[in-house]
């Protein structure tokens, strides 16, 4: 554990655990508790008191998560069955953080969506079990208080924030029927009009549902595993907007191609989408799904709003080079363009000023390490992991909202930073010439950097009609003048074509013919001599031709002297 900026020294809260199997940890939502697994036990410490609270014998735990109010720790181990085919043991445990007792154990076979979902006040908790959503109240996991049953519920997401609680559920389509997402208000699940909103759509094998912070709307990214048109290797994606008041719409994206990322602003009034074939486009939309600002195109596949929503980072990680664009979204001004190559992780610091990028295993097992940046583009701290070690996880300590007030955006870098990136090599012959673009695709600039068209007012229909008449008359007059000048001009004397030089002639066609044949024979002899010099074995008749060269030269000279 490392202290944050500006010190970056090793913290005394957590003694270094150097076990080879330390691959998972988690902070509580308020940052006061810290839990980690080292391949033998799962430990919980208090960050404020620097004391060990509990230790659980869970050597195979690979996932840890605290409930929103830090009262429950959820742990997950891979599900296993015995050799005789008997049912496996429970692998999802819920522990009371205060007492250390196990509140409940469940069987959770899949790692995907393994963790139960709590409301922010922990009044309700929900799990998806056999295509049903089971609801518990007040962390009493022995009694299922409510069930939301729809045919083949594939996924659900609880809304953030206080009451009333809302839940979005996704049901995939089957037998020609469309898929749909419905919004409900807990616990009103029964009746044909119980749903707050409904949005159905085709072309969906899976969805990602994103609530905004105020729980007033959900964005749904629907994607297919295969694009039947063959346009994309990554399938086909569509973006849908569903409001809790019943409104819904398909978000029209100006550029075709995959949808890489969609993220809500913390103000819940706008969202940013990164989409389209590379170079990808990024656009901010409002709640009417109308574009507010277009960032143009670039090498990007992710977007990250700062905790206060005043800065937006557009980045290209994964198979891209790690280029980032840091934008002041209040004034739509570009702040900086840092580059973090090979990054697999990005996170904003809760203070809204610092950024964390990291290269972690198992995504990449070489060049592991992390960097702490200021949003203006300078690197404040860097840690490179030794080549024989791997970095598995890195994150900021969370803090409750409001601890760090929003600060004005600055457009100048702090004094510390990395040297500028090396310029590409240019040969000496090209160094004094203007650089040429070697890009495969020309990037489209942001909308406030595009050249502005002229301010000329458009012509009316009558003015356009008169303009066409005048242009037609002018063209007819010019054509008549050109015809008249051609008729009156004297014909120029014909001259031989340029670039052709006629050979001297003797005036006697027979002599000219002999000269031409002699030159042709001499040219063939020259070719044979070149072949012989190159080491080619010549035939007997070819050697005889070469021996006749002197006689042919003498004969040609006599004929040309006669010329």
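^ structure tokens above, recovered residues below v
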């Amino acid at each position: 554990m490392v202290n944050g900026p500006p010190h970056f020294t090793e913290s005394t809260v957590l003694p270094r655990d150097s076990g080879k199997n330390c691959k998972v940890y988690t902070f509580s939502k308020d940052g006061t508790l810290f839990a980690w697994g080292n391949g033998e036990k799962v430990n919980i410490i208090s960050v404020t008191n620097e004391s060990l609270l509990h230790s659980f014998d869970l050597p195979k735990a690979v996932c840890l998560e605290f409930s929103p109010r830090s009262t429950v720790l959820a742990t997950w181990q891979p599900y296993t069955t015995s050799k005789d085919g008997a049912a496996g043991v429970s692998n999802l445990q819920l522990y009371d953080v205060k007492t250390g007792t196990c509140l409940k154990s469940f069987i959770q076979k899949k790692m995907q969506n393994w963790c139960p979902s709590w409301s922010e006040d922990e009044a309700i908790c929900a799990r998806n079990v056999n295509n049903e959503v089971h609801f518990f109240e007040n962390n009493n996991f022995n009694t299922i208080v409510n069930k939301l049953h729809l045919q083949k519920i594939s996924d659900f997401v609880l809304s953030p924030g206080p009451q009333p609680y809302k839940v979005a559920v996704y049901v995939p389509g089957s037998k020609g029927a469309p898929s749909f997402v419905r919004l409900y208000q807990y616990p009103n699940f029964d009746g044909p009009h119980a749903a707050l909103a409904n949005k159905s759509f085709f072309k969906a094998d899976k969805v990602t549902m994103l609530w905004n912070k105020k729980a007033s709307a959900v964005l749904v990214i629907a994607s297919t595993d295969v694009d039947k048109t063959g346009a994309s290797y990554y399938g086909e994606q569509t973006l849908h907007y569903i409001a809790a008041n019943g409104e819904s719409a398909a978000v029209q994206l100006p550029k075709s191609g995959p949808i890489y990322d969609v993220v809500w602003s913390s103000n819940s009034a706008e969202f940013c989408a990164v989409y389209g074939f590379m170079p990808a486009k990024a656009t901010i939309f409002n709640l009417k799904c109308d574009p507010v600002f277009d960032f143009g195109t670039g090498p990007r596949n992710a977007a990250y709003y700062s905790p206060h929503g005043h800065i937006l980072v557009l980045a290209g990680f994964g198979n891209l080079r790690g280029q980032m664009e840091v934008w002041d979204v209040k004034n739509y001004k570009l702040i900086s363009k840092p580059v973090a190559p090979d990054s697999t992780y990005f996170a904003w610091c809760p203070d809204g000023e610092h950024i964390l990028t990291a290269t972690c295993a198992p995504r990449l097992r070489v060049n592991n390490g992390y960097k702490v940046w200021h949003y203006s583009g300078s690197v404040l701290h860097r840690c490179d992991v030794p080549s024989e070690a791997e970095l598995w996880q890195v994150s900021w300590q969370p803090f409750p909202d409001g601890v760090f007030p929003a600060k004005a955006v600055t457009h100048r870098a702090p004094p510390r930073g990395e040297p500028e990136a090396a310029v590409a090599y240019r040969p000496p012959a090209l160094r004094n010439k203007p650089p040429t673009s070697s890009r495969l695709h020309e990037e489209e600039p942001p909308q406030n950097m595009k050249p502005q068209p002229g301010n000329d007012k458009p012509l009316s229909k009558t003015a356009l009609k008169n303009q066409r008449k005048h242009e037609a008359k002018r063209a007819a007059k010019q054509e008549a003048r050109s015809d008249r000048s051609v008729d009156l001009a004297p014909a120029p004397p014909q001259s031989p074509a340029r670039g052709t030089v006629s050979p001297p002639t003797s005036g006697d066609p027979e002599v000219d013919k002999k000269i031409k044949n002699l030159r042709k024979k001499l040219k063939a002899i020259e070719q044979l001599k070149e072949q012989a010099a190159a080491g080619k074995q010549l035939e007997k008749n070819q050697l005889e031709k070469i021996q006749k060269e002197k006689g042919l030269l003498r004969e040609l000279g006599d004929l040309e002297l006669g010329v």
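The longest helix spans residues 461-488.
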